[in-house]
Give the backbone structure.
Amino acid sequence: MTTTDVPPGRAATSQIHPPQRHPQRQEKNVTGATVWLTGLPSAGKTSLARELAALLAAGGHRTEVLDGDEVRTFLSAGLGFGRADRDTNVQRIGFVAELLASHGVTVLVPVIAPYAQSRAAVRERHAENGTPYLEVHVATPVEVCAERDVKGLYARQAAGEISGLTGVDDPYEAPEAPDLRIETQTSTVAESAESLRALLAGLGLLAPGRPSGSDDERLSA
Protein backbone atom coordinates (compact mmCIF):
# COMPACT_ATOMS: atom_id res chain seq x y z
CA MET A 1 0.00 0.00 0.00
CA THR A 2 1.09 3.54 -0.70
CA THR A 3 0.60 6.82 1.09
CA THR A 4 0.52 10.03 -0.91
CA ASP A 5 1.76 13.22 0.74
CA VAL A 6 -0.17 16.48 0.38
CA PRO A 7 0.91 19.87 1.79
CA PRO A 8 -0.05 20.16 5.51
CA GLY A 9 -3.29 21.98 6.24
CA ARG A 10 -4.64 21.45 2.75
CA ALA A 11 -5.72 17.86 2.34
CA ALA A 12 -5.30 14.82 4.52
CA THR A 13 -4.67 11.48 2.86
CA SER A 14 -5.20 7.86 3.78
CA GLN A 15 -4.13 4.53 2.37
CA ILE A 16 -4.39 3.93 -1.34
CA HIS A 17 -6.02 0.83 -2.79
CA PRO A 18 -3.72 -0.25 -5.64
CA PRO A 19 -5.81 -0.62 -8.81
CA GLN A 20 -6.03 -4.06 -10.40
CA ARG A 21 -5.80 -4.10 -14.18
CA HIS A 22 -7.54 -6.48 -16.53
CA PRO A 23 -4.96 -8.23 -18.80
CA GLN A 24 -6.78 -7.24 -22.00
CA ARG A 25 -6.78 -3.61 -20.93
CA GLN A 26 -3.06 -3.79 -20.20
CA GLU A 27 -2.45 -5.06 -23.73
CA LYS A 28 -4.49 -2.20 -25.17
CA ASN A 29 -2.62 0.30 -22.96
CA VAL A 30 -5.91 1.75 -21.79
CA THR A 31 -5.66 4.05 -18.78
CA GLY A 32 -8.92 5.16 -17.21
CA ALA A 33 -10.28 5.45 -13.70
CA THR A 34 -13.35 6.40 -11.71
CA VAL A 35 -12.88 9.06 -9.06
CA TRP A 36 -15.90 9.21 -6.75
CA LEU A 37 -16.15 12.42 -4.75
CA THR A 38 -18.45 11.83 -1.79
CA GLY A 39 -19.44 14.44 0.77
CA LEU A 40 -22.31 16.46 2.18
CA PRO A 41 -24.49 18.80 0.11
CA SER A 42 -22.56 22.03 -0.66
CA ALA A 43 -19.27 20.38 0.36
CA GLY A 44 -17.69 21.52 -2.90
CA LYS A 45 -17.75 18.19 -4.77
CA THR A 46 -18.96 19.51 -8.11
CA SER A 47 -16.72 22.59 -8.07
CA LEU A 48 -13.73 20.35 -7.40
CA ALA A 49 -14.74 17.86 -10.11
CA ARG A 50 -15.14 20.57 -12.74
CA GLU A 51 -11.88 22.24 -11.78
CA LEU A 52 -10.05 18.92 -12.06
CA ALA A 53 -11.82 18.08 -15.33
CA ALA A 54 -10.63 21.35 -16.84
CA LEU A 55 -7.11 20.69 -15.59
CA LEU A 56 -7.04 17.20 -17.08
CA ALA A 57 -8.68 18.25 -20.35
CA ALA A 58 -6.09 21.00 -20.77
CA GLY A 59 -3.46 18.27 -20.58
CA GLY A 60 -5.20 16.30 -23.31
CA HIS A 61 -6.73 13.64 -21.04
CA ARG A 62 -10.11 12.09 -21.81
CA THR A 63 -12.35 13.22 -18.97
CA GLU A 64 -16.05 13.13 -18.08
CA VAL A 65 -18.02 14.48 -15.13
CA LEU A 66 -21.12 12.56 -14.04
CA ASP A 67 -22.94 15.30 -12.16
CA GLY A 68 -25.48 14.05 -9.61
CA ASP A 69 -28.21 16.51 -10.59
CA GLU A 70 -27.84 15.75 -14.27
CA VAL A 71 -27.95 12.01 -13.63
CA ARG A 72 -31.11 12.46 -11.57
CA THR A 73 -32.69 14.26 -14.52
CA PHE A 74 -31.68 11.98 -17.36
CA LEU A 75 -30.81 8.56 -15.91
CA SER A 76 -32.62 8.29 -12.59
CA ALA A 77 -35.77 10.33 -13.21
CA GLY A 78 -38.56 9.07 -10.99
CA LEU A 79 -36.33 7.90 -8.17
CA GLY A 80 -36.88 9.39 -4.74
CA PHE A 81 -34.52 9.96 -1.85
CA GLY A 82 -35.30 6.97 0.34
CA ARG A 83 -32.48 4.54 1.01
CA ALA A 84 -33.51 2.03 -1.69
CA ASP A 85 -33.81 4.71 -4.39
CA ARG A 86 -30.53 6.33 -3.37
CA ASP A 87 -28.83 2.95 -3.63
CA THR A 88 -30.33 2.36 -7.09
CA ASN A 89 -29.14 5.78 -8.21
CA VAL A 90 -25.60 5.14 -6.97
CA GLN A 91 -25.44 1.73 -8.65
CA ARG A 92 -26.61 3.19 -11.97
CA ILE A 93 -23.98 5.89 -11.81
CA GLY A 94 -21.37 3.32 -10.82
CA PHE A 95 -22.25 1.17 -13.84
CA VAL A 96 -21.89 4.07 -16.27
CA ALA A 97 -18.69 5.27 -14.60
CA GLU A 98 -17.06 1.84 -14.79
CA LEU A 99 -18.05 1.47 -18.44
CA LEU A 100 -16.47 4.80 -19.36
CA ALA A 101 -13.38 4.24 -17.21
CA SER A 102 -12.82 0.80 -18.75
CA HIS A 103 -12.48 2.54 -22.11
CA GLY A 104 -9.80 4.95 -20.95
CA VAL A 105 -11.82 7.87 -19.61
CA THR A 106 -11.05 9.53 -16.29
CA VAL A 107 -14.55 9.71 -14.82
CA LEU A 108 -15.21 12.21 -12.02
CA VAL A 109 -18.35 11.51 -9.97
CA PRO A 110 -19.36 14.32 -7.56
CA VAL A 111 -22.25 12.44 -5.95
CA ILE A 112 -23.11 12.30 -2.22
CA ALA A 113 -23.61 8.49 -2.07
CA PRO A 114 -24.33 8.66 1.68
CA TYR A 115 -24.24 4.93 2.48
CA ALA A 116 -20.98 3.01 2.84
CA GLN A 117 -22.53 -0.22 1.56
CA SER A 118 -23.57 1.41 -1.72
CA ARG A 119 -20.11 2.87 -2.25
CA ALA A 120 -18.51 -0.47 -1.45
CA ALA A 121 -20.68 -2.17 -4.08
CA VAL A 122 -19.49 0.32 -6.71
CA ARG A 123 -15.87 -0.28 -5.74
CA GLU A 124 -16.44 -4.04 -5.97
CA ARG A 125 -17.89 -3.73 -9.48
CA HIS A 126 -14.77 -1.88 -10.56
CA ALA A 127 -12.50 -4.44 -8.89
CA GLU A 128 -14.28 -7.33 -10.58
CA ASN A 129 -13.60 -5.73 -13.96
CA GLY A 130 -10.05 -4.62 -13.19
CA THR A 131 -10.99 -0.94 -13.47
CA PRO A 132 -9.19 1.54 -11.20
CA TYR A 133 -11.41 3.24 -8.63
CA LEU A 134 -10.62 5.98 -6.12
CA GLU A 135 -12.87 7.24 -3.34
CA VAL A 136 -12.33 10.86 -2.36
CA HIS A 137 -13.99 12.23 0.76
CA VAL A 138 -14.69 15.94 0.38
CA ALA A 139 -14.78 16.35 4.15
CA THR A 140 -16.27 19.81 4.54
CA PRO A 141 -17.96 20.18 7.98
CA VAL A 142 -21.74 20.47 7.95
CA GLU A 143 -21.51 23.93 9.51
CA VAL A 144 -19.46 25.20 6.57
CA CYS A 145 -21.77 23.47 4.08
CA ALA A 146 -24.77 25.15 5.71
CA GLU A 147 -23.08 28.55 5.40
CA ARG A 148 -22.41 27.97 1.71
CA ASP A 149 -25.85 26.44 1.09
CA VAL A 150 -25.34 26.56 -2.67
CA LYS A 151 -28.82 25.19 -3.48
CA GLY A 152 -30.65 26.61 -0.47
CA LEU A 153 -31.29 23.11 0.93
CA TYR A 154 -30.14 23.84 4.47
CA ALA A 155 -32.33 26.94 4.67
CA ARG A 156 -35.33 24.99 3.37
CA GLN A 157 -34.73 22.18 5.86
CA ALA A 158 -34.45 24.68 8.72
CA ALA A 159 -37.74 26.25 7.61
CA GLY A 160 -39.44 22.85 7.60
CA GLU A 161 -40.00 22.89 3.84
CA ILE A 162 -38.02 19.69 3.20
CA SER A 163 -36.82 16.72 5.20
CA GLY A 164 -34.30 13.94 4.66
CA LEU A 165 -31.33 16.29 4.12
CA THR A 166 -28.15 14.26 4.17
CA GLY A 167 -26.02 15.03 7.20
CA VAL A 168 -28.81 16.92 8.98
CA ASP A 169 -31.89 14.74 9.40
CA ASP A 170 -30.75 11.85 7.20
CA PRO A 171 -27.61 9.75 7.71
CA TYR A 172 -24.27 10.31 6.04
CA GLU A 173 -21.79 7.49 6.54
CA ALA A 174 -18.42 9.16 6.04
CA PRO A 175 -15.68 6.98 4.53
CA GLU A 176 -13.39 5.50 7.17
CA ALA A 177 -10.44 4.97 4.82
CA PRO A 178 -10.86 7.00 1.62
CA ASP A 179 -8.11 7.10 -0.95
CA LEU A 180 -7.92 10.84 -0.37
CA ARG A 181 -9.57 13.18 2.12
CA ILE A 182 -9.87 16.85 1.18
CA GLU A 183 -10.91 19.63 3.53
CA THR A 184 -12.15 22.38 1.25
CA GLN A 185 -12.46 24.90 4.06
CA THR A 186 -8.66 24.98 4.36
CA SER A 187 -7.70 24.89 0.68
CA THR A 188 -8.74 26.56 -2.53
CA VAL A 189 -10.53 24.68 -5.30
CA ALA A 190 -7.39 24.91 -7.43
CA GLU A 191 -5.21 23.50 -4.64
CA SER A 192 -7.62 20.64 -4.02
CA ALA A 193 -7.81 19.81 -7.73
CA GLU A 194 -4.02 19.78 -8.00
CA SER A 195 -3.77 17.43 -4.99
CA LEU A 196 -6.12 15.02 -6.72
CA ARG A 197 -4.35 15.35 -10.07
CA ALA A 198 -1.06 14.57 -8.37
CA LEU A 199 -2.59 11.49 -6.76
CA LEU A 200 -3.82 10.19 -10.12
CA ALA A 201 -0.45 10.85 -11.72
CA GLY A 202 1.40 9.21 -8.85
CA LEU A 203 -0.66 6.05 -9.24
CA GLY A 204 0.00 5.92 -12.97
CA LEU A 205 -3.63 6.61 -13.81
CA LEU A 206 -2.97 9.46 -16.21
CA ALA A 207 -1.75 8.25 -19.58
CA PRO A 208 0.38 10.66 -21.61
CA GLY A 209 -2.07 13.33 -22.72
CA ARG A 210 -2.91 14.18 -26.29
CA PRO A 211 -2.38 17.77 -27.46
CA SER A 212 -5.37 19.92 -26.59
CA GLY A 213 -7.87 20.02 -29.45
CA SER A 214 -6.62 16.83 -31.15
CA ASP A 215 -9.00 14.80 -33.27
CA ASP A 216 -8.99 11.98 -30.72
CA GLU A 217 -10.14 14.23 -27.89
CA ARG A 218 -13.85 13.48 -27.88
CA LEU A 219 -14.78 13.14 -24.20
CA SER A 220 -14.10 16.23 -22.11
CA ALA A 221 -16.06 17.86 -19.31
Remarks:
- Residues 1-29, 211-221 have pLDDT under 50 and may be disordered.
- Helices lie at 23-27, 45-58, 68-74, 83-101, 116-128, 142-148, 153-158, 189-202.
